[in-house]
Design brief:
The protein is mainly alpha-helical. It has helices at about 1-10, 30-40, 60-65, 80-90, 95-110, 110-130, 140-150, 155-170, 180-190; strands at about 20-25, 45-50. The protein is elongated.
């Protein structure tokens, strides 16, 4: 319960902050207000809010999470649908659709490392198709990868590999702001 959480939000005698996991699946409005107040009083606390179902966009919990610059991970497996739509739009060079699907993806999952990994995965599929190795792809990916490969020369594919590698290193070494990586990579791929 919310009442039990307050005791663990404070640092222990060694100055360490405990990790708190709070099930908010059935949280009431009054409890939500108490949680919000507690988080304001203990801004350095580590808190994971867990819900057994996806939250509605209008949920007050989403506002609480965003107010504290938290991250929302969906309870369902909606993640792949959004990322694959984005990848299809991007590598098919459908610019407007790409930015719309990117916006939807970022609402569901804003982990730039995951998105970069998926970009590398799709570029690998395109490279296999471009370099005559489609037989190494799962059958359901052959047609789409071959179609997307038509949008890039062999040199462009190699340059995109280098681009993704450089952004990956910059992200993991803190040389680039995580929130900007995916947009920058998207712009670069669309311009090739």
């Amino acid at each position: 319960t919310i009442g039990n959480v307050e005791a663990t939000l404070q640092a222990d005698i060694f100055g360490e902050t405990a990790l708190n996991v709070v099930d908010v699946s059935k949280i009431l409005k009054a409890q939500l207000e108490k949680l919000f107040d507690l988080l304001k009083r203990y801004p350095n606390a580590y808190v994971i809010l867990v819900s057994s179902k996806d939250l509605e966009v209008t949920s007050p919990l989403i506002k609480v999470v965003r107010a504290f610059k938290g991250r929302i991970v969906p309870a369902t497996l909606a993640r792949p649908k959004e990322v694959f739509r984005y990848l299809d739009d991007l590598f098919n060079k459908r610019e407007q659709a790409c930015y719309k699907s990117l916006q939807k993806l970022l609402e569901v999952d804003n982990d730039p490392i995951y998105i970069l990994v998926m970009l590398q995965y799709q570029l690998k599929n395109i490279a296999l198709a471009k370099f005559g190795l489609s037989h190494k792809l799962p059958p359901f990916q052959v047609s789409a990868s071959q179609q997307q490969a038509k949008n890039f020369t062999e040199q462009q594919i190699l340059a995109l590999y280098e681009l993704l590698f450089n952004y990956d290193v910059a992200l993991k070494t803190g040389k680039i702001v995580p929130d900007t990586v995916v947009l920058l990579v998207t712009q670069k791929i669309l311009s090739h």
